[in-house]
Amino acid sequence: MILTKAQYDEIAQCLVSVPPTRQSLRKLKQRFPSQSQATLLSIFSQEYQKHIKRTHAKHHTSEAIESYYQRYLNGVGRNGAAPVLLELANEVDYAPSLMARIILERFLQEHEETPPSKSVINSMLRDPSQIPDGVLANQVYQCIVNDCCYGPLVDCIKHAIGHEHEVLLRDLLLEKSLSFLDEDQLRAKGYDKTPDFILQVPVAVEGHIIHWIESKASFGDECSHHAYLHDQFWSYWNSSEEESLILWLKSPMFLKNWLLEFCRISTLNNAGKLSSPVPAPFLLTLS
Fold first, then answer.
1. Do 73 and 16 reside in the same domain of the chain?
2. Which long-range contacts (CB under 8 A, 24 or more apart) does 256-263 make?
3. Are the CB atoms for 248 and 285 separated by under 8 Å?
């Protein structure tokens, strides 16, 4: 189903004061029944991540960390089985997995002789049974499984979805008997930044000559497009000014026009002079 700019804005506005919980997602689905659960979850996640980036610093001051840690100790002292960390995260409007990381780091600093390394922290978050305190391990586990936007569980799900859609795209290319090189093959040839697939023989799609394909399985808003253009897509074009295909699932259709317009503007080269217009990628979205 096509998602319009007005529909996207309405969903985003609805998310301003909504906590990142499964209950909130159910309410969101009730309000927007025509949108798929996957689309709403993806928008929900991106909007919440923007909020976390804006407020991240205030949760990492020494005063905030000590306050959270003492509240955690007081809470589990009264009832160690209660979801103290999860409720604390929701109360201060911070992602449960990130709150769990703060408390875990503070706990290890107090109980270990040397400061914990990032790899040790990440390993304990992925497998809370490694945490040397059973109560804290349970608290961290509750945060991880109840966080629908951050944490190792969410990262695994995102990775699996991305891989699934790359496999789907590969199967479609094979079905159409198109010759291509995938990311692994390109890296073996020495390429640094690569799209998911480069077509060895370009094809025409709706009047566009397609040289490479990039698959994005998460929701793509304007902010996401800006980031991917800067970090990835610009490096895929070569001097022949080839046209390209970006396959982005569940993107609102207004982004197609925005992206085409954005990419046609002239850019500054290293000498500070205007270069020729950059060719626009051809954006195809699949539901």
1. no
2. 256/283, 256/285, 258/222, 258/225, 259/225, 259/283, 262/225, 262/229, 263/229
3. yes
User: Following DSSP, what letter does each residue of 225-239 receive, concatenated?
Assistant: HHHHIIIIIHHH--T
Strand ranges of the sheet holding 197-205, from the earlier edge strand across to the other edge? 180-182, 197-205, 208-216, 244-248, 281-284
Does the pTM exceed 0.70?
Answer: yes
Domain shared by 141 and 68, yes or no: yes
The model's pLDDT over 57-104, given as tens digits with 9 standing for 90+, comes to 999 999 999 999 999 999 999 999 999 999 999 999 999 999 999 999
Question: Hunting for tokens 């959270």 — which residue is that?
Answer: 68
**10 Å Cβ neighbour count for 287?**
11
CB contact at 8 A, 131 and 124: yes
Residues 83 and 197 in one domain: no
Give Cβ neighbours of residue 184 (< 8 Å, ≥ 6 apart).
Answer: none
| Spatial CB neighbours of 31, under 8 Å, sequence gap ≥ 6 | 14
Amino acid at 123: S
In terms of DSSP bridges, do strands 281-284 and 208-216 run parallel, antiparallel, or are they unpaired?
unpaired
Rounded Cα–Cα distance for residues 123 and 125 (Å) = 5
Residue 66 lies in domain: 57-150
